Amino acid sequence: MAYSLVHASSFIDPSLFIGSVEDRVVVLVIGSGGREHALCYALKRSPSCDAVFCAPGNAGISNSGDATCISDLDISDSSAVISFCHKWGVGLVVVGPEAPLVAGLSNDLVKAGIPSFGPSSEAAALEGSKNFMKNLCDKYGIPTAKYQTFTDPAAAKQYIQEQGAPIVIKADGLAAGKGVIVAMTLDEAYEAVDLMLVKGAFGSAGSQVIVEEFLEGEEASFFALVDGENAIPLESAQDHKRVGDGDTGPNTGGMGAYSPAPIITEELQSLVMKSIIIPTVKGMAAEGCRFVGVLYAGLMIEKKSGLPKLIEYNVRFGDPECQVSH
Ligand code: AMP
Ligand code: GLY
User: Fold this and answer.
1) Where's the ATP-grasp domain (predicted)?
2) What is the phi/psi pair of residue 288, to 5°?
3) Distance, CA 321 to ligand 2 centroid (Å)?
């Protein structure tokens, strides 16, 4: 069974963390996008939620009355977030974006005794390091594009020449959605290598690059709710990636979204759970970094075989995908 995303965010039911619906909990949502607004909207309507804060939030959240925005709380400063939680009796923190998760906000909150929805920094490496993600796929037989990782530009270019174009070059670390270059020619691929490894365009995030097989097919976003050992699928979605109408112009983080993704049939959903999500959750537990939170798989449904391959992992809800309701 699958659930729609806004509906799904009510799965972050505070009573799961505090034991009883009678003990209504004050929740702090971290982030400032449409995704965080959708989370505030759902939490505000949960019977087990007392009050909702959002830091830093945005004008839309503030105007809607779905949460009280704390625009001056520095979400990159764990001790400031913890002090805020103590001062206002926050009993659950829901972390929206990846950067604070990768930086370890959940680790710090849990250490301070504050329940947090979102993975530890160790588990968030699934998004924070593409090399970590690809190694996990290798070790646990999870279908993904064939790849090699490089720090030496000459070695990367030699591999590219052997493989041919089109080919995909990726910065290892977080690069705000800009660290992936789909090169249609060898020259574009060499340029991408130079951009990352020689010119340092993405700083330390690009000091290691992944050179990856180009996959052809249709993309879909797949979400699962994970408790460290088990996973249940949420409803699928697809976002409009290109900036312009009619799928034109450069790629973006998503100009809008719809749900469900018609390409994710029930059979495909089972296959994605069996071949991608469950082996990842089990593999992460075996590696000693249990994943807790929303695991968001960017999939390519390959044109030739119709089978799903993992393009990337995100360790959070999608934005804009989180906003699409049923
Ligand atoms: P990522 O940040 O890894 O999701 O990549 C951004 C976008 O680049 C994806 O949404 C795809 O459109 C494209 N992309 C990434 N990897 C591949 C690949 N191996 N083959 C084809 N397209 C890809
Ligand atoms: N819409 C893409 C993302 O949330 O990463």
Assistant:
1) 134-318
2) 85, 15
3) 7
Q: Which atom of ligand 2 is nearest to the CA of 320?
A: 1
- Global pTM reads 0.89
Q: Give pLDDT tens digits for 223-258.
A: 999 999 999 999 888 888 888 888 888 777 788 899
Q: How much is the pLDDT for 6? A: 45
The ligand minimizing its distance to the Cα of 303 is 1
pLDDT at 19 over 60: no
Residue 191: count other Cβ atoms within 10 Å of its Cβ. 15
Q: In angstroms, rounded to a whole number, what is the distance separating the alpha carbons of residues 199 and 37?
A: 37
Ligand nearest to C-alpha 168: 1
Compute, in angstroms, the gap from residue 97 CA to the centroid of ligand 1. 19
Our answer on whether the CB atom of 108 is closer than 6 Å to any ligand 2 atom is: no
Q: Which atom of ligand 2 is nearest to the CA of 239?
A: 1
Task: Please tell me the distance from the alpha carbon of residue 33 to that of residue 143, in angstroms, as a whole number.
Answer: 31
Kindly report the protein residue whose alpha carbon is nearest to atom 1 of ligand 1: 312
Residues 6+ apart with CB under 8 A from 283: 136, 139, 140, 142
- Token digits for 269? 């959903």
CA–CA separation, 316 and 311 (whole Å): 16
Q: Decide: 239 in ligand 2 pocket, CB within 6 A.
A: yes
Q: Is the dihedral of CA 32, 38, 41, 47 positive or negative?
A: negative
Residues 284-303: tens digit of each pLDDT: 999 999 999 999 999 999 98
Distance 86 CA to ligand 2 centre (A): 32
Mean pLDDT taken over the chain: 90
- What tokens were used for 154? 């000459």
